[in-house]
């Protein structure tokens, strides 16, 4: 089904205006219209759902297959508030909505615990969302950038657009996204608007973004991938005291880039680094176990290895890629040594580089490559049952503008569907 984009908004003020036509905004529009309200989506770019189109390498991982809220989502707000929002709509009910109501056939990717559209087409996801909305009478106006909101004497709201025009509504849903992927039209306008109207904003930062840093031994390992890396992040204070407590990456794939590191394991933890870099707080320590094997396993291999074998050949034999094995050995100063020649201190140093390698970083790739934005409006400033602002009556917030994001794997889409549903449904009810 191809989407139908309307070029203008009716002169009669709609009941609900949705500012932003991304995943959360379109979901809000659908559920507001389902309540019988007149709904208009104001989208600043030339078409809705542009970020949906590029998601998952244009395959669009729409949902995870399982969710642990504490493990899979990051917020500086109250964990109980976050759990209350997720209690409103189960993963199974959300999946059923996508399949039965939106008409999107889903397929599983069992090894990664993800749901994708069976067509592997992000365009189908976008088009079916738009089609479902327009079938309910939702009007979509593109190239309509909301630059300001102002309250009306009767309790409604006025949207001031970038072209100087205005639209009025009884209630508003702010679904303007964050700052990630600025080429998609995201620049933090929503944060600026609601912040100017009285909301506090947790300082924002790029999340799920690659890190910049030096490769082992200063080698250039760009393009090298590993699939069993155990990556760990410890707060600076804990690391200084030798404590193991910290965050563990949920995924194990790791990629050396031209300027540093990426891959699911890095993206799982990069928010801790970017937050500290952006806010000037103590930097956490990242440590990599390159193959996920224990120190005891490596010690046993070293003992069993013939003394005449070279150190690099031992590492390659047990699965370390050649370029990385050579870099590790060079950094340890054992590139041309045989196992029988290693002193105890050299074995200990080599074991540390294999199982607790300190990953150096000096920056990140920023919003241009960030999957999402960290920080935003605290959950304490919205009613978690309705997503209505506690500061601005009849203004509902959803999606990336809130102080919540999930790790990669469909979790951020689930957050968009979940909060968009609450915001749209209750924006319509608040009008009534």
Give an overview in words.
This protein is an alpha+beta fold and 432 residues long. It has two domains: 250 residues, FAD/NAD(P)-binding domain (3-Layer(bba) Sandwich), CATH 3.50.50.60; 154 residues, no CATH class. Helices cover 33% and strands 20% of the residues. It has 14 helices and 26 strands. The chain has a five-stranded parallel sheet, with helices on one face. Strands 14-17-18-13-21 form a five-stranded antiparallel sheet. A hairpin with a 3-residue loop joins β17 and β18. The radius of gyration is 25 Å and the shape is elongated. The two termini are 32 Å apart. 48% of the residues are buried. The N terminus is likely disordered. It comes from Coccomyxa subellipsoidea. This is Aminoacetone oxidase family FAD-binding enzyme. Keywords: FAD, Flavoprotein, Membrane, Transmembrane, Transmembrane helix. Its cofactor is FAD.
Per-chain topology:
Elements: E1 16-19, H1 23-34, E2 39-42, H2 50-54, E3 63-64, H3 69-72, E4 73-74, H4 79-86, H5 91-101, E5 106-109, E6 114-117, H6 122-135, E7 139-141, E8 146-151, E9 157-161, E10 166-169, E11 171-174, H7 189-196, E12 202-207, E13 211-212, E14 225-226, E15 230-234, H8 236-240, E16 247-248, E17 254-256, E18 260-262, H9 264-279, E19 285-289, H10 295-304, H11 311-317, H12 322-332, H13 344-355, E20 357-358, E21 363-364, E22 372-376, E23 382-383, E24 388-389, E25 395-397, E26 405-406, H14 411-431
Parallel strand pairs: 1-2, 1-11, 2-7, 11-25
Antiparallel strand pairs: 3-6, 4-26, 5-6, 8-9, 9-10, 12-22, 13-18, 13-21, 14-17, 15-16, 15-19, 17-18, 19-20, 23-24
Helix pairs in contact: 1-6, 1-14, 11-12
């Amino acid at each position: 089904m191809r989407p139908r984009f309307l070029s203008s908004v009716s002169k009669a003020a709609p009941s609900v205006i949705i500012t932003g036509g991304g995943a959360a905004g379109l979901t809000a529009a659908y559920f507001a219209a389902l309540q019988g309200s007149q709904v208009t989506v104001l989208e600043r770019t030339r078409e809705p759902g542009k970020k949906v189109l590029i998601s998952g390498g244009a395959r669009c991982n729409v949902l995870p297959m399982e969710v642990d809220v504490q493990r899979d989502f990051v917020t500086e707000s109250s964990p109980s508030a976050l759990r209350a929002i997720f209690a409103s709509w189960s993963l199974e009910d959300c999946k059923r909505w996508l399949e039965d109501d939106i008409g999107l056939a889903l397929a599983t990717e069992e090894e990664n615990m993800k749901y994708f559209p069976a067509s592997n087409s992000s365009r189908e996801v976008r088009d079916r969302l738009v089609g479902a909305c327009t079938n309910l009478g939702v009007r979509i106006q593109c190239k309509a950038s909301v630059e300001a909101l102002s309250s009306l004497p009767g309790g409604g709201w006025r949207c001031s657009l970038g072209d100087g025009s205005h639209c009025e509504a009884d209630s508003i849903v702010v679904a303007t996204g964050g700052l990630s992927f600025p080429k998609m039209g995201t620049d933090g306008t929503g944060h600026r608007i609601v912040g100017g109207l009285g909301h506090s904003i947790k300082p924002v930062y790029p999340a799920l973004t690659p890190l910049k840093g030096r490769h082992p031994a200063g080698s250039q390992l760009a393009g090298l991938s590993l699939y069993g890396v155990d990556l760990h992040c410890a707060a600076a204070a804990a690391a200084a005291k030798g404590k193991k407590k910290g965050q563990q990456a949920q995924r194990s794939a790791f990629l050396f880039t031209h300027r540093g590191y990426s891959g699911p394991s890095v993206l799982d933890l990069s928010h801790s680094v970017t937050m500290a870099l952006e806010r000037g707080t103590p930097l956490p320590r990242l440590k990599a176990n390159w193959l996920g094997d224990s120190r005891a396993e490596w010690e046993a291999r070293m003992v069993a290895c013939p003394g005449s074998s070279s150190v690099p050949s031992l590492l390659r034999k047990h699965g370390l890629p050649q370029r990385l094995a050579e870099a590790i050995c060079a950094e340890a100063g054992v590139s041309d040594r045989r196992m029988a020649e290693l002193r105890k201190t050299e074995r200990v140093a080599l074991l540390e580089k294999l199982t607790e390698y300190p990953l150096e970083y000096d920056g990140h790739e920023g919003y241009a490559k960030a999957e999402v934005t960290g920080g935003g409006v605290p959950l304490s400033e919205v009613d978690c049952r309705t997503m209505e602002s506690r500061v601005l009556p009849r203004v509902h917030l959803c999606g990336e503008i809130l102080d919540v994001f999930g790790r990669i794997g469909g979790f951020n889409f689930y957050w968009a569907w979940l909060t968009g549903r609450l915001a749209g449904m209750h924006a319509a009810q608040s009008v009534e």
